[in-house]
Amino acid sequence: MGITLSTGFLKNFVSTEEINAYAGAVKKAHDELHQKTGAGNDYLGWVDLPSKTPDALVAELTALAKEVQAHSEAIISIGIGGSYLGIRSTLEFLGGNPALPVYYAGHNMSNADMSRVLKVIADKKVTVVVISKSGTTTEPAVAFRLVDAAMRRKYSGEELKKRIICVTDAKKGALRQIADKNGYRAYVIPDDVGGRFSILTPVGLVPLALAGVDIKAFVDGFRAGEKEYSQTDLSRNICYQYAAIRNILYKKGKCIEMMASFYPNVQYVTEWWKQLYGESEGKGGQGIFPASTILSTDLHSMGQLMQDGMRNIFETFVMIDKAGDAVLIPNDPLDIDKFNCIAGKDLDWVNKQAYHATADAHYEGGVPNLLLTLERADAFHIGQLYYFFEKGVGISGYILGVNPFDQPGVEAYKKKMFALLGKK
Ligand code: PA5
């Protein structure tokens, strides 16, 4: 089944005719992406990246992973934004026990977090992966300065070199210079793939391989997504339908998209999605505000607002069909809580009833909602889902009339911070 889209709870908010009316705009956006003629066309390398990703890279990184796993007990992954979120999202989505635990740095400047990372370096045998496309972003640069110094206190010579891996531009940026000067292993992020679209490049593939993820299945999921979501017939392409539906709802005043999941392992997928959609569409005074909830947890904090607050929200649920080993609810002879009605049922069945109830209640409360269902929570399906969202925002952004591939607004705080830091 792969990934499916259900639109039952859009009734009376979005009609099939309205979606079909977008066929021309969607086809135009599709052509601009595939022929690389649209805005931001220097950054369209992600469109056919899955089919262009060489099997040899997957084999090389799988061999690197074996080598690193043999001499390390933990990975330190340094990066922010597109150089952080997809890695964490994938690992948390897959859950379980990675071959090597991953500790993150460079996405904040918290003393407490950094102290924990420095302690890991002192106590364990580690390998560091430092990721920055520009090679000049402040947070990861400062984190790497601290981590590099800690690594040098512990290791030297060839031992140090084998434990620091850089992922950055082929030529530009301070990180490239640091890698070249110190002889650190370096993997290249292609010029034509922007940060938030880079999870399929060495940005994601290197740390995910080291952590033990089946990167072949991950790449195959992307490839399935590329094939599935390149069909120009709107009625057969759920990704293009999603892009059209968002624009229809936005025009009707639904300016917040709440991504909601009843699966806690989806939380960082929603964080990755927020960067992808927020940075791609939020410009020129436009853009749907991407927000997220994890349920049932947030039903008891955000539930009131979702049911009854300002009616400017639509919701996209992400569910997992085969959610793992069953956990059966026991029978209780006393039945004081009156839940023997679900005795013998799998907890995930109850979770799915909570979804149906919530989607229906929110719909009746004036929140139209969509449902994306993944067959299972594995490397293949998360790869396919990433491509679904990447393609979806390319089409949706072009329909909206923005350049989805730049992020000029991210620079504003940096300039002010450099001034405060006295950085030349
Ligand atoms: O989407 C983007 O390009 C940005 O948000 C980047 O991901 C983020 O700023 C990190 O950039 P870099 O990898 O150059 O350090």
Q: What's the number of structural domains?
A: 2
The strand count comes to 10
Mean pLDDT: 97
CATH C-level of the largest domain: Alpha Beta
Q: What portion of residues is helical?
A: 40-55%
Gyration radius, rounded = 23 Å
Which structural class fits the helix and strand makeup?
A: alpha/beta
Q: What is the CATH superfamily label of the largest domain? A: Glucose-6-phosphate isomerase like protein, domain 1
Shape: globular
N/C terminus separation: 54 Å
Q: Give the strand line-up of the largest sheet.
A: 1-10-9-7-8
Question: What is the string of SSEs from the N terminus onward?
Answer: EHHHHEHEHEHHEHEHHHEHEHEHEHH
Q: Number of helical segments?
A: 17
Q: What's the CATH architecture of the largest domain?
A: 3-Layer(aba) Sandwich
Q: Could you tell me which ligands this complex binds, including any ions or cofactors?
A: 5-phosphoarabinonic acid
| Major sheet size, sense and barrel closure | 5 strands, mixed
Strand content: 5-15%
Give a quick precis of the structure.
With 424 residues, the protein is α/β, with parallel strands linked by helices.
Explain what this protein looks like in three dimensions.
- The chain has helices at residues 16-20, 23-34, 49-52, 55-71, 85-94, 111-123, 138-154, 157-162, 174-182, 202-210, 215-228, 238-251, 267-281, 303-308, 347-364, 379-400, 411-421; strands spanning 3-6, 74-78, 102-105, 126-132, 164-168, 185-188, 256-261, 289-294, 313-322, 369-376.
- The chain is α/β, with parallel strands linked by helices and 424 residues long.
- It has two domains: 3-38 and 221-400, Glucose-6-phosphate isomerase like protein, domain 1 (Rossmann fold); 49-213, Rossmann fold, CATH 3.40.50.
- Strand 5, helix 9 and strand 6 (185-188) form a beta-alpha-beta unit.
- The longest helix has 22 residues, at 379-400.
- The protein starts with a strand and ends with a helix.
- The relative contact order is 0.16.
- 5-phosphoarabinonic acid binds next to loops.
